[in-house]
Amino acid sequence: MPPINFSPSSFSINTSDLNQQRIAILGAGGLGACAALELSQRGYKVDLFEEHSEPIKKASYANEGKVHVGFIYAMDRSFHTAHQMLVGAVHFMEYLQRWVDVKPEEMISTPFYYLVQKGSLLNSQELNSHYQRCCQVYKELSGGGKKKYLGLFDSLEARLLHKSRIDGIANPEFTEDIFETTEYSVEPRYIAEKLTQAISSDPNINLFLDSKVEAVAKVGDRLKVIFRNAGIQIEEEYTDVVNSTWNGLLEIDRTMGIEPLGTWSHRYKFGNKLLIPLKEADLPSCTMVLGPFGDIVNFRERGAFMSWYPVGRTGWSEDYRPPEWDSMYSPEERMDVFQRSFEELKKRIPAAGNLKFPLEAVDPVGGDILALGNTEVDQSKSRFHERFEVGIRSFGNYHSVDTGKYTLIPYLAVKVADRLEGID
Ligand SMILES: Cc1cc2nc3c(=O)[nH]c(=O)nc-3n(C[C@H](O)[C@H](O)[C@H](O)COP(=O)(O)OP(=O)(O)OC[C@H]3O[C@@H](n4cnc5c(N)ncnc54)[C@H](O)[C@@H]3O)c2cc1C
């Protein structure tokens, strides 16, 4: 689908009766798109601003698509993060299907193995008790299976495999134990395409591309959005503004005098994509735990995702807005990150070494990860092991949304609409 491009002269801002609610959503990523679609379904008109030339091409496109059920957040002993992920996971598919016709079986990965690495921050016993708690809480949140995980599965499972099984899946030199789980990823590009079609064809949604929001300011009881398109600064007033710009979130919040909840950081992480059709047996989907390790996801016909954190986490920033990492790396530098990550993954997952593919099939994209905390994941005290202080912060009719994880997008999008209607 060709990108929609508006020149300033062709702007057609929603000009309904000024007494009515006029809503601006900043950032057409996963959250902005889903929130716009939910508001549209509730009868609202929305102006959706995106600085890039295409919607949903940033973190919500480059990510691994894991619909987390809390397993990875075992270091958060309060269980708040796992609980938050489970809430997102229970609602993920049901809410997404309110807006787009997605078929779970067309986009889910193979189920994840959790590979306990030698040097893991937690041992297998500690991990097992956390995983079993996640499975139990899932049962409660899903009403005993009434709400199916990804629309397909009644229950959640994590089973410690006998050590004799390690060899067939991973290299025992690096692997202490393996859990077989029923956690899955969904292919983010498939969802991005469906959401892009939906927001582009919805008459209630005005999508303004190449429109970078520079600031939001209070004007009486309204909010003025100041944005730039084709070098021209434009201002427009709204009754309600939702900031869902992720990499731009803190910078725009700051123009409203809003500071983050604590120290923060932006990390640029590569989510290399291998675009060749795969069979389930070709490659196991794996998450290596617990610490600065990596993931492989087998998306069957839709290829694979591969990341090795120590190589692929290339950028770090504690500024309000991180550098424009997406445009900073040459194709050669990107391919080098993929190659070095792949070498590390092959050592741990021998099946990866059997894959045959041309280099043109590799798409080494990356994305920003915004999180509270500025200590790396190899430290047990790192705040990156938590992700529960996320979601919507409302300041009158200005709403700032730290999505936290892809997993939470559909759930938070509905919550944003509730908040604008004063329901929540
Ligand atoms: C490599 C990688 C792997 C990940 N894996 C997972 C995973 O497996 N599971 C999971 O749950 N989460 C994962 N995440 C996190 C997840 O991708 C994000 O939490 C989520 O996609 C954020 O969605 P969003 O809509 O808030 O942000 P985005 O999708 O980044 O959308 C924000 C939009 O705002 C736009 N924007 C920014 N500034 C401005 C501005 N000033 N004006 C206008 N527009 C602006 C951007 O261009 C962008 O389109 C991963 C992240 C990365 C990078």
Describe the structure.
- The protein has 424 residues and is α+β, with helices and mostly antiparallel strands.
- It has 2 domains: 21-65 and 187-261 and 389-424, FAD/NAD(P)-binding domain, CATH 3.50.50; 109-186 and 263-379, D-Amino Acid Oxidase, subunit A, domain 2 (D-Amino Acid Oxidase, Chain A, domain 2), CATH 3.30.9.10.
- 29% of the residues lie in helices and 25% in strands.
- The chain contains 12 helices and 20 strands.
- The chain has an 8-stranded mixed β-sheet with strand order 4-5-3-13-14-15-12-17, with helices on both faces. Strands 6-2-1-10-20-19 form a 6-stranded mixed β-sheet, sandwiched between helices. Strands 7-8-9 form a 3-stranded antiparallel β-sheet.
- Strand 1, helix 1 and strand 2 form a beta-alpha-beta unit.
- Helix 1 (30-41) crosses helix 7 (188-201), helix 1 (30-41) crosses helix 12 and helix 3 (80-99) crosses helix 5 (124-141).
- It is globular.
- The two termini are 36 Å apart.
- The model is unreliable at 1-10 and 15-19 (pLDDT under 50).
- Residues 26-32, 49-52, 58-60, 62-66, 68, 212-213, 244-248, 252, 269, 271, 367, 369, 403-407 line the site of flavin-adenine dinucleotide.
